[in-house]
Amino acid sequence: MKVGVIIPAAGQGRRMGRDMNKQYLLLNGRPILAHTLSLFFSSGKKFDQITVVVRPQEKEYCYQNVIQKYFPGKPIKLVSGGETRRESVYAGLKSFSPEIDYVIIHDGARPLMPYPVLERVLKGIVEYDAVTTGVRVKDTIKFINGGGFVSNTPDRGKLIAVQTPQAFRYDIIKKAHEEISSDIQVTDDAFLVEKLGYPVKVIKGSYDNIKVTTPVDLIIAEAILKTGD
Question: pLDDT value at position 21?
Answer without folding.
Answer: 83
